[in-house]
Write a structure and sequence with these properties.
Helix content is 66%, strand content 0%. By secondary structure, it is mainly α.
């Protein structure tokens, strides 16, 4: 049987592996704009991060249809 400490250690290792593959970008919109973004994401049925990344990718594709360096 796996102990709680072992589960916790495995979880921490998994989080670290994930964090090594990702970037972190902090956004600080004004309260009203942040609420509008959250509501739009809910209406779209998406997490806020997915909603924002989709919007950014759309803009990037519009600005540079060749794709640039983004995934």
């Amino acid at each position: 049987p796996t102990t709680q400490d072992e589960k916790r250690r495995r979880h921490i290792e998994a989080v670290k592996r994930c964090q090594q593959k990702t970037d972190s970008i902090m956004l600080r919109p004004y309260l009203a704009e942040g609420q509008a973004i959250r509501e739009a994401a809910i209406r779209a049925g998406q997490p806020v991060s997915v909603y924002i990344l989709d919007a950014v990718r759309e803009r990037m594709n519009r600005d540079d249809p060749s794709g640039g360096d983004a995934e």
